[in-house]
Amino acid sequence: MLLDLPGHGRHVGDVAPWRFTAEAVEAEITALSRDEPIDLVGYSMGGRLALAYAVRHPDRVRRLVLESASPGLATEEDRRSRRDQDGELASQIEADGVQEFVDRWEALPLFESQRDLPEEERTTLRAGRLRNHPDSLAASLRGLGTGALPSYWGSLPSLRVPVLILVGALDRKFVEIGARMAELLPDARLAQVPEAGHTVHLERPDAWLGAVTDFLARGDRPG
What we know:
223 residues; alpha/beta; Rossmann fold; 2 domains; four-stranded parallel sheet; 48% helix; globular
């Protein structure tokens, strides 16, 4: 099953404050899973929320795949600073609209490797980004941004769920984060995909699919 995060997909245009909390996302995952243990796959913000769910409900998660994700910011000072930054960005999106935000977003060094995608794919990707609603994006930043969520670094050593940490080799920041996470998690595998940046599933879809399906197919076998 696929889960749209608040303000995205079928939730575009929704700005109901109660949706933009980790608790609301957790409730939707639980409802969709019908209380059965699930394999959970999340990218970036979705990965952070997937990790949050696994930390809070480890008995409901069989395996966890985190693509280009982090456990958040370690200190309250860092989280407060990030909340301030995200609040300013949210206000800019509300004032300037989605297109100007997308222009700035696509120019970030984090997504530089996407420039090597075929033009047709880049056009499709941009069109999808432009379908977002400014109020939804702003609410997502304020309610689910990195500074809005707690740090999960301290929870990693006690998380017994098997975890695949999937990163693009060109995304040095998240390679380092992934390596730190793998050291702290009791049952984790770090996979670096060559010639990929932050969006591994877009830039190297075959390698992404191979890594994820192999990990999920291993069942309860060790390693």
